[in-house]
Design a protein that fits this description.
385 residues; alpha+beta; FAD/NAD(P)-binding domain; 2 domains; nine-stranded mixed sheet; five-stranded mixed sheet; 9 helices; 23% strand; globular
Amino acid sequence: MTDTADAVVIGTGVIGAAVAYELAQTGLRVVAIDRLGGVGSGSTSSSSSIVRFHYSTFEGVAASWESKFSWESWPEYLGSCPEESLASFIKTGCLILDGSTQRERVLPLFDRVGVPYECWDAETIRQRVPGMDPGRYAPPKPVTDAAFWADADGELGAYYTPDGGFIDDPQLAARNLMAAAKRRGTEVQLREQVVGIVQKNARVQGIRLRSGSVIQSPVVVNAAGPYSGQVNALAGVTGEFRIRTRPLRQEVHSVPAPAGYARGELGPVVTDGDLGTYFRSHFGGQLIVGSAEPACDALHWIDTRMLSTPSPPSRRGIRRYSAWPEESRRWASRPVPLVSLHYTTWPTTGSRSTTVPHWLGSMWPSARAATSSKTLLWPAVLWRP
């Protein structure tokens, strides 16, 4: 069977869904393809979903700041129905500790774009985020190194962006975007795998699916996330790229926030290059903690066929919380079974309720965050004449 479209989007994560929606708004007939069984069921579903602006290029800062206004007016941006369940932007602010980025590079970009920010010293950090330790421990060290537990050798400052935060449900955000795209005529084909990129005279002509179908299109967008390298290889274009993509296993875990942290409220997103971690508050008194891939940690590059393979838990972020007793802080030196599980190892072919192991029961959705793992989302790659 041969079909036609003005544009084909490979991948229905938050990037693919957003691309499909924006293309559909221009009046193009769009077909979105995904090998999984649900929109946003891949790496998007395990994202930390942080909204931040501290990027190292003008384009990155400008694009992220512009997107903030869409998150703030999400129903209007989507043209959603009143009864539709929507993701929410939770504005907590974002604190970037010294050692995370170069202030002298980022703050001038904030000034150019108009991103509000404040500069904090160590005492301000203590006052504004009770329970957080502003001590300097750099460089990042593995938790197996005795030096990891050494006392701080100074104190950190930071800069703070009050408009940062996180999206409460990234998978729902992707589904919101795709629902909006479908209202504008986008066709979504799930459980379909792209096995070939149709070309003629070195120009893209469409895609071939494992089912045998061919979709003819002059534009193909690769938003396949961890599978994007495979799609690029199908197109035979990897030799032309100066930058290539491959899957990197990342760790994202949930731990209880220490008593009194941020006065019991949702604290800011924290980028902590000093320890090589980042974290944000989550509902139910939890903190979502992830790795920033410091030099002391081996990077787990993986074959796309092994995307379900678990990786060990990340524990270094616990060093930052002065309000925790020493015994609790030393949790970092031993594994905790609950947080070593990975959402990506569970089935992703049905609705959210069908992807949860039965033993988690009523712990959902907090258990989802406690057992999540994410893979990098890469920028979409666009092929066209």
